[in-house]
Amino acid sequence: MAHSTRETERKYAPPADGMSWPPDLAGVGPVAELADQGVQDLDAVYYDTEDLRLSRSRASLRRRTGGTDAGWHLKLPLPGDSREEIQAPLSSEEVPEELRDLAFSRTRGAPLRPVIRIRSTRSLHHLLGADGEVLAELSVDDVTAEALLDDGGRATWKEMEVELAEDGDPALLDTVEKALREHGVDRAQSPSKVARGLRETTSLLNGTTDTRGDVTPGSAGDHVLAYVDRLAGALRDLDPAVRRELPDSVHQMRTTARRLRGCLRSYRSVLDREATDLVRQDLKWLANELGVERDHEVLRERLTTGVSELPGELVLGAVEARLRTWDAAQRTEARRRTLDTLASPRYLNLLDNLQALTDAPPLRAKAAGEPEKVLVKALLKEYERLAARMEPALDMTPGPKRDAAIHDARKAAKRLRYAAEAARAALGKPAARLGKRAKAVQQVSGAQHDSVVTSDVLRDLAVAAHAAGEPGFTWGLLYGQERASARSRERRLPEAWARVRAAARPRKLRG
Fold first, then answer.
1. What is the DSSP string of 235-301?
2. End-of-domain residue from the set 201, 229, 261
3. 3-state secondary structure of 89
């Protein structure tokens, strides 16, 4: 069974003038002593696809022997100096299935093979605090890299790493780095051994052809593509978290798919829809499939909270037991559906098409246009679509038809919000203001919809309880609360909508 750790480290090149290596850091910040921990011999074989898809996405997969953490290690990038390291025990030279699955969104199903062997002789030191606690590890490595690909070479170098102890203060790295610079030690140019090794022993990561040289900096296309790139990367990065059931990961992945789909729709004047329509359809499918698990998460939280907040004398019958039974059945099915989705050929096809879209975007003529013209026009179109749905919905009599109309308008509010997010870097405060107000409409109408859906589930639970001879009082009470909440949210919609209308005036959007 794999387990995960977070590592935060910085790499440094040796000083050019032969100064003491490593320098004595005792007395630097909270460091009281530099304690020698001896020498380790480390031997790691890195696995990747033939075209190095893991390395190109700043991830790595290795089988390492030696040291205190021998085993299989999948490293995934995190913000700043951190990475997540997912470890599995040493096995045969076959990549563990769990790690293969967690790397899937990066490899896109391509076979993994050994690409480089890196051996290091490591002199290890601990940076100790005043009470003897380990603040960080400092290691000096003599590295030998040998390519395992055709026509690969061999390279050697020295480097130093400073890795923060678990739960250590990140500010320590800045303090140590300042002292290292005073000793003539600078950051290494490469972020990892495998990246440097591949660059120095193969030509696969060097001289990459720029397939997007026709994107004019600062143009409408430049801004839209920056947003698309960010979301496509986020979708890829969230895949391992969803497979491992990390908190809120399904919600984040579903929202990312919706954001990306909305952007491709809103900016069809920038990206050719003949190339993006299939991607949009698959993103809609992915969001819908993930929605089964996410919707259950929301329902479970609302129902559990609703029951827990009732006075004990109002909870009649086997309410909590029935709720647990309902949750277990629904959650198991929802989880199975999510995993089946991520294992499906359609999902693989979506990943491939997203990569192709970002590598060689299908730009239209307006992609070279001024952002103020192209992006504002797209925002106004999304606003008009929202207005065409919201105005009739607000004029309806309360009831199921109005509930459905508000839900439909909510979807349009989300598209306007996401379009404004994509335009924010180009248009500044006007786009940010419109996006914020569209988000408020989305949240109010979304809360209304959640209450409507929850009340429907409560009705079903009440019917099942009645059929089993159980009291239906508690379910009915909760049903009434959810219906009242839905109507309360409806009453807040006109004010939120008026603020969107005020922010969507063309003159305001153009600053």
1. HHHHHHHHHTT-TTHHHHHHHHHHHHHHHHHHTTTTB-HHHHHHHHHHHHHHHHHHHHHHHHHHHHH
2. 201
3. coil
Per the domain annotation, does 299 fall within a domain?
Answer: yes
Does residue 228 share a domain with residue 167?
Answer: no
In a shared domain, residues 76 and 156:
yes
Same domain, 25 and 145: yes
Domain co-membership, 68 together with 193:
yes
Neighbour tally for 396: CB within 10 Å: 13
Q: Which two tokens stand for residue 22?
A: 């490593």
- Sequence-ordered strand ranges (E) for 78-218: 82-88, 113-128, 134-147, 154-164
Q: Answer for the pair 478, 320: CB distance below 8 angstroms, yes or no.
A: no
Cα separation, 296 vs 293, in Å, equals: 5
pLDDT tens-place values along the chain, 511 residues long? 678 999 999 999 988 766 667 788 999 999 999 999 999 999 999 999 999 999 999 999 999 999 888 999 999 999 888 999 999 999 777 999 999 999 999 999 999 999 999 999 999 999 999 999 999 999 999 999 999 998 889 999 999 999 999 889 999 999 999 999 988 889 998 889 999 999 999 988 775 545 565 788 999 999 999 999 999 999 999 999 999 999 999 999 999 999 999 999 999 999 999 999 999 999 999 999 999 999 999 999 999 999 999 999 999 999 999 999 999 999 999 999 999 999 999 999 999 999 999 999 999 999 999 999 999 999 999 999 999 999 999 999 999 999 999 999 999 999 999 999 999 999 999 999 999 999 999 999 999 999 999 999 999 999 999 999 999 999 999 999 999 999 999 999 999 999 999 999 877 777 6
- Please tell me whether residues 342 and 457 are part of one structural domain: no
DSSP state at residue 399: S
Rounded to whole angstroms, the maximal C-alpha distance in the chain is 86
Instruction: Residue 244: name the closest of 105, 371, 344 by CA.
Output: 105
73 located within any domain = yes
Which three-class secondary structure string do you get for 444-469? Answer: HHHHHHHHHHHHHHHHHHHHHHHHCC
| pTM value surpassing 0.70 | yes
> By the 8 A CB rule, do 123 and 137 touch?
no
Rounded Cα–Cα distance for residues 73 and 190 (Å): 19
Domain assignment of residue 122, yes or no: yes
The answer to whether 47 and 165 are in contact (CB under 8 A) is no
Same domain, 128 and 229: no
Same domain as 177, residue 268: no
Look up the domain containing 113 and give its range: 3-201
Whether residue 210 is contained in a domain is answered as: no
CATH number for 103: 2.40.320.10
